[in-house]
Amino acid sequence: MPVDPLSIRDAWSKIPSPGAAETEFERFTGKRMERILAIVVAIGSAALGAQALIAAISTISAADAAHVTTLVVVFAPLAAMLLACVIGRGVRVASGVFAVAYVLALAAWPLVVDPSDKVADDQPWIFFLVNVGVVAAMLAFPVRVQFAWAFGMPFVYGYVRLVQGEFSREFWVTTAFDVSFTLILGVVIISLGWMFRSVAAGVDEARGRAVASYAAAAAAAAAEEERVAMSALMHDSVLAALIAGERAEGERARELAVAMAREALTRLANTEGAVAQEGSDEPVGTAQIVVELRRSLSELGADAIVEERGGIGLIPGRAARALVLAARQAIGNAVSHAGGRGLHIVAEGHGDEGIRVTISDTGSGFDIDEIGADRLGIRASIFARMAGVAGTAGIDSDEHGTTVTLGWERA
């Protein structure tokens, strides 16, 4: 089946830049794991909650105000937690509220229970929710607090039961069994939750590295594609115009050569206007621009420091790429024509609103008005490139040196 080259190019252009891959990468697996845990907790807690509710209703009467109050304090937050787990919103808050409310209700249990009820084999309805309180802590709290809840909750229940039974021997036996069972189960639940979350975090991290590597490869491929396209443009348009101008002998031939030269310059200045030549427009961090400037210095063999100022933000990928390429041209000019003397670069970020890059040297300077129209290093590679992304470019040069100012601001 033939593949449309335009479709491939469009898909290639949507690969995020390296800066965007680090700043805007979504925890896909981690969020999916949290959703799965919430659903599982909702199912298990609903079963245990229904069991506890049936036991509670069968053992209390409407006149027993303390029991009714405890029932509301426990089951109202539990119902809210189950609803939050099902709809996937407010899970952490609802689970935290239930975990705290259940601990308070459990601690107050000796004040609620009938003092004459001292049958050790009759487990109170509140016992069925001990591990529900543990899983609620798993959804709401950090790992250390989760384990504290898993270890502490069974012992709180055990102490409450012993207080209810006045520390009699019968209560010691049954309570020890209940505490050991809930303790082991609670620790297992918290450990499984921690393990699943760790695996999900590892998958997200590996996926993030893979996407960043793929984005870097895409950027390199886009740069190579631009180089090939620029070479073809130079060969097909610029060199053809130069050859035509050299061979022009009559007035008509000279006019044709001038027209060819104008068309070649226009095409060269507009090379950044095509999406295929611009690469991805995914947001790029201004910190990534500083990294690219330092890389350009290293590749050009220049000895200078890139000074960072202002706040770090995000700007569109096309604007960032145009700014880096224009700055690279300005650095190359400073190295070629000023020997790199006094080369100084300042990158001043304005958060998400824009960035300004200043390249200055202490060379002998030049008169920008004397630059021929056929010289493309400044007109096409700096001015036209920045204009193509709605940016600004300015050059201030005299006998004391040259300063090139490049800027982009969000409209």
Order of helices and strands: HHHHHHHHHHHEHEEHEEHEE
Order of strands across the main sheet: 2-4-5-7-6
From the N-terminal CA to the C-terminal CA, the straight-line distance is: 44 Å
**In percent, how much strand structure appears in the residues?**
5-15%
Number of helices: 14
Q: Mind summarizing the main beta sheet?
A: 5 strands, mixed
Number of strands: 7
Helix content: 55-70%
Average pLDDT? 78
3D shape: rod-shaped
Number of domains: 2
GO molecular function: ATP binding
Organism: Microbacterium luteolum
InterPro entries: HATPase_C_sf (IPR036890), Sensor_HK_TwoCompSys (IPR050482)
Keywords: ATP-binding, Kinase, Membrane, Nucleotide-binding, Transferase, Transmembrane, Transmembrane helix, Two-component regulatory system
Summarize this structure briefly.
With 411 residues, the protein is α+β, with helices and mostly antiparallel strands. 67% of the residues lie in helices and 10% in strands.
